Amino acid sequence: MELEGRRGLGSAPGLASTTPESGQKRRTEAEAGAAGPGAVRARRFLLCLYLVGFLDLFGVSMVVPLLSLHIKSLGASPTVAGIVGSSYGVLQLFSSTLVGCWSDVAGRRASLLVCILLSALGYLLLGAATNVFLFVLARVPAGIFKHTLSISRALLSDLVAEKERPIVIGHFNTASSVGFILGPMVGGYLTELDGGFYLTAFICFSVFILNAGLVWLLPWSEAKLGSAGNGLRWGKTHVLSGKSDCGVQEAATTRGARTGEKAARPPWVAVVSALQDMKSLMFSEMWDIFLVRLLMAVAVMLYYSNFVLALEERFGVRPKVTGYLISYSSALGATAGFALGPILRLYKHDAHALLLHSSALTCALLLLYSAAPTVGAVVFSSTLLSFSTAIGRTCITDLQLTVGGAQASGTLIGMGQSVTAVGRIIAPLLSGVAQEVSPCGPPSLGVALALVAVFIMSLNKPRSSGDVRDKLKIE
To answer: What is the pLDDT of residues 265-310, one digit of tens each?
Structure first.
């Protein structure tokens, strides 16, 4: 708009005497008038996506805490229950990247609807499971297609400018976390009723159906996504990223001319090609980002792995009180999304520096928790950990998208979720070995892993995304 204004001043002699202040005021008013309705629609779209994230974790968290009790009531041994629980993580490990890449190719709306509906089917089957075999069968659809949050984050990265992305994703994480806090309360109440688990599973199914309806009713016709999902245009103004529609169309034309020969490829060929690109990136340009994600994820999982047992053995804290402490920490973590905006402005939107400092803080707090002499020190460390880990999760996702480029945001986020799934498989094994030494063994091992992550980030300076982004274009 500013460039257009300058051209106007140069071509219209009658405007030459206009003061810069009045000219700037008119340009601001014209821009606000053009962007006003689009900004309202864009804001409404974002709020609906926040609601999608809330409903997703609200429904899941009603059921997940009850799974171990239910499979035990079906006659499964602890070993079988552990294998069934691990199978979900294995399915997520292999499906996260595939589904994320598929969302880049097939589009966010179609992939979101398919994932939500098939996950709903899984929870409906779970409510009908009367033996261990049916229980395992019911976990398969959710294990493969429960990627609503990942696709939603990819869609958010399509909608907003790079500087706004971590703030918006932080707000999305906050909305999801609120659902995760409220869900167990509702599920715990329902399970006390006759047939409580089956009722809870059916309500979870209903929540997912409601979520699918919400996604279907979103104003997708007003949101014109580019062929690679690189931005959202509302009317004549690219409101959320601050780009004019002319610039977006020009960029789309350039992309179309550059990739015209590949546009007719079948979707499965595009998916395979993108996965090959991701394989090369994971072991070359972005290896440090994914390794840091894995190390920090395992470190935090080790902290939570024996939290209840460690507090009981070290301080005699009852599990009920520990549960209150976990809920307290979760609630604080949910509010971290609102603090992310001011913190990023303080760091001048340097996600790498913020991730480095939040990881260093997490490492120090894990060390404090491991050596805590009193319950008060545990509460203090848990309070700050809820902030540092929430900020770190948002920053590592934003760093992936910044370095890899938003053109394959679904693939990048899916790859990140696969790395986290590897952590979910590794962390219980490491925790079991470390607990043989001491109740403080798991968090102490987490300190060592977090320290390695901080060391890696210190050695690797932030890179520009231009070279990497060219390798991640999904036609």
So the answer is: 555 555 555 555 555 555 556 788 889 999 999 999 899 877 877 8
Q: How far apart are CA 148 and CA 176, in angstroms?
A: 11
Q: Which residues of 370-402 are buried (b: 16+ CB within 10 A; e: fewer)?
A: bebeeeeebeebbebbbbbbbbbbbbbbbbbbb
The answer for residues whose C-beta is within 8 angstroms of residue 464's C-beta and 6 or more apart is: none
Distance CA 452, CA 437 (A): 21
Q: Is there a contact between 317 and 375 (Cβ–Cβ < 8 Å)?
A: yes
Tokens 């480095």 belong to residue: 356
CA dist 271 and 94 (Å) reads 14
CB-facing half-sphere around the CA of 395: CA atoms within 13 A: 27
Residue of higher predicted confidence among 39 and 180: 180
444 is written with which tokens?
């102490």
Quick one: CA torsion of 147, 149, 153, 154, rounded to 10 degrees?
Answer: 20
Give, in order, the Cα–Cα distances in Å from 293 to each of 238, 424, 446: 32, 12, 13
**CA atoms of 52 and 257, how far apart (whole Å):** 36
CA 354/CA 136 separation, integer angstroms: 41
pLDDT given at position 85: 73
Instruction: For tokens 């994480």, name the residue.
Output: 173
User: How many angstroms separate the CA atoms of 277 and 262, rounded?
Assistant: 15
By the 8 A CB rule, do 357 and 398 touch? no
Is 184 in contact with 405 (CB distance < 8 Å)? no
Alpha carbons 237 and 75: distance in angstroms, whole number: 60
Token pair listed for 426: 């590794």
Residue with tokens 């905006």: 341
Q: Half-sphere exposure (CA, 13 Å, Cβ side) for 252?
A: 17
- Per-residue pLDDT tens over the stretch 119-170: 999 999 998 888 889 998 999 999 899 999 999 988 888 888 888 888 888 8
Name which of 217-221, 239-243, 382-386 the model is least confident about.
Answer: 239-243
Query: What is residue 353's predicted lDDT score, i.e. its pLDDT?
Result: 92
At 64, which amino acid appears? V
